[in-house]
Description:
The complex is a heterodimer of chains A (361) and B (270). Chain A is α/β, with parallel strands linked by helices. Chain A has helices spanning 9-19, 35-43, 45-48, 59-70, 82-97, 124-128, 146-163, 173-177, 193-200, 224-244, 264-279, 297-304, 320-328, 347-359; strands at 3-8, 24-27, 52-55, 76-80, 102-110, 116-119, 139-141, 166-172, 179-184, 216-217, 248-251, 258-261, 284-289, 291-293, 309-314, 333-338.
Amino acid sequence: MGELRLMKGxxxxxxxxxxxxxxxxxxxxxxxxxxxxxxxxxxxxxxDTGMVVLQAESEIASINxxxxxxxxxxxxxxxxxxxxxxLMAEGISYMAGSELPCVIVNVQRGGPGLGTIQPSQAxxxxxxxxxxxxxxxxxVLAPASVQEMHDFVVLGFELAFKYRNPVMILADxxxxxxxxxxxxxxxRPRWTNEQIAEIxxxxxxxxxxxxxxxxxxxxxxxxxxxxxxxxxxxxxKYNRMKAEEVRFEAIECDDAEYILVAFGSAARICQKTVQIxxxxxxxxxxxxxxxxxxxxxxxxxxxxxxxxxxxxxxFNAGQMVNDIRLAVNGKTRVxxxxxxxxxxxxxxxxxxxxxxxxxxx
Amino acid sequence: xxxxxxxxxxxxxxxxxxxxxxxxxNDDIMHYCPGCSHGVVHRLIAxxxxxxxIQDQTIxxxxxxxxxxxxxYIDIDWQEAxxxxxxxxxxxxxxxLPDKYVFSYQxxxxxxxxxxAETFHAVNRGExxxxxxxxxxxxxxxxxxxxxxxxxxxxxxxxxxxxNVDLNGYPLKITELLAxxxxxxxxxxxxxxxxxxxxxxxxxxxxxxxxxxxxxxxAFVEVVxxxxxxWKLNPVDSNKWMEENMFxxxxxxxxxxSSRADADLYRIKG
Lengths: 361, 270
Ligand SMILES: Cc1ncc(C[n+]2csc(CCOP(=O)(O)OP(=O)(O)O)c2C)c(N)n1
Ligand code: SF4
Ligand SMILES: [Mg+2]
């Protein structure tokens, strides 16, 4: 029960995929996440659980293989890093439009273009604002530890099927490469055909029996009035996610005068910054969004009337800061601090930025 | 008029029936232009599925192209793939449902231009699927632009002075290339321009599905097809144009009939 192991974030993604009863993984190598598929291939889950693992010819192929297998009601996932996710964008949009569940892991690296293989959080906007074409949203989870890499695979599949929507785990190279203690779930069986029929029997394509209507997985609709209805249904689903799935962590916010907002590995650094600042007598707190979509706007707007300012700390040029500003709606100051290109600032650099941008400024 | 209607009513009786539409093909009116090959090939697929008794075990993957709506007409489960990605989608389905029948249905733009990589790699892996390839030498759906299969000199909306090799390269004989791949089991080129050809094409499609059941590798059926609208010809002239111009470039017949290659032929020595 609850086996403890010392593992890399990327490896644990693979192990969690097998242990939670995953049916298939399709992927294409890219640093800094190639260990996901390498671990799966070394584990050979097809011999034990029957899980399929296939190296595709590209990320375009992998996401479309995910589409095909997900359309059969299976629990399917892929993983990649930034440039690969860009290639998947069309397929992800198709999956959102066809309402197919799946888990997509993005272990982000720096961009734009080929950029750098060093860690980054520059795909925040891509992940939370769609990334592909059309009005759609992914449910986006941001792990800040190896344990969360594990837990969010399990949670990701639950949410993907609850909403019939792709879930993205937006990690970064730090969390992917980090080694930490992790508590693994025990092996769960893959769903039987009967279970799949019970969970998704109304829409899956598994061969049509004589007495049921054919099922068609598609995002296409030529009739504008029906298509608008489809769009409205999707929006209603995203609103349900906003009402039910917001997850965050608030650390030392109760008496805080300033609040840092950071996700993923940036939040780990900010946790230390909070300690440094508090030792110096500055009351600083930290809000760590765990779901980036839906964004924890309510808690931020609540604190907006209580604090002197927010500092958004991100390993990008300032993307999440815009969501914070929307939530704050002018009620207090919102500043940004970040580094790019794969540079990870130490906690005291963040503390200096807090002074310069908010406290002094 | 009413005399004719009465005569017709008299003729339409079960005992006079010489041919019936397969129930796997539904009664919806197809959106295809008159003289288009797509509808005929749909019928053949439906008949094969019906005759093999595999309606409840078959999943089709439709492309982006004029046949995007194939799922409207053949009464089986379908997935509609992104442009060019049907072989990857079919791979995903087949890998998690290895005992079902899975086929992709694609046009030449879909299969041999934007989806070339997915096509090649699905066949190279020897995916146990059927791939149906409608080669009409043009992009029908988007209004008659050049396809990779467009013939030299052929006029399309993006080759208004005829396909020019210096600018556009050569007609892509992708079926010949695919036949070289060790994962291919059965590769054939057919057409549906007359009843004899239709019967042969149906046999080939049936064989492709049987190859899939035996898990011998990929079964690939090209159908050299007409696009009366894209070619701006009436149905009769389309058939003539196809026979005169397409068949010499895309000769009909089997290109491969075996099974996927023995892995030992490709194995390292030690
Ligand atoms: C990514 C993408 N690019 C372009 C298109 C536009 N498009 C739709 S169908 C098509 C060509 C289809 O031609 P073909 O595959 O030959 O099928 P046909 O209509 O001739 O049967 C194109 C370019 C699209 N839907 N998606
Ligand atoms: S445009 Fe061409 S391919 Fe499309 S339906 Fe008409 S004839 Fe057929
Ligand atoms: Mg075409």
